Request: fold
Amino acid sequence: MPLRHIETLADDAHAFAYVAGSFELGRALGFFPKDRAGPSGGEQCILAESEFGVPVGFVTFYRADHPNYVGCVWIDLVWVEKTHRRMGVGRAMLERAIAVAESDPEVTRVELGTLSHNMRMQNLARRVGMQASRIDFVREVHRG
Reply:
């Protein structure tokens, strides 16, 4: 399956539209949090395409710009079309994104986060050599 690295997602209008649309679908299906912002266009992207050039998945990632994340690349979104899941597409894209990140001599780690119920993503992260490093707890505050 061909993989294409896009340095800045917004520079490829077709890919950006695909990523944004897939994100909205994933959010509606509960794969991404309801209150999470969509892609900004400033991310890098690994785009998986069929032999006909039709997108079938993506991974977005960026250099984290925060004092607690110096040297960190954050893998932001991972999406594979339902028709191409369980075929190694997600793993191939994630491995390529990690390789791109590791090619930068200033990068010291690669991180991603996922929802606690997303066992497929947790297992995929482990298969590419990532380890769980923390657990976040959340309490929603409801006003009025």
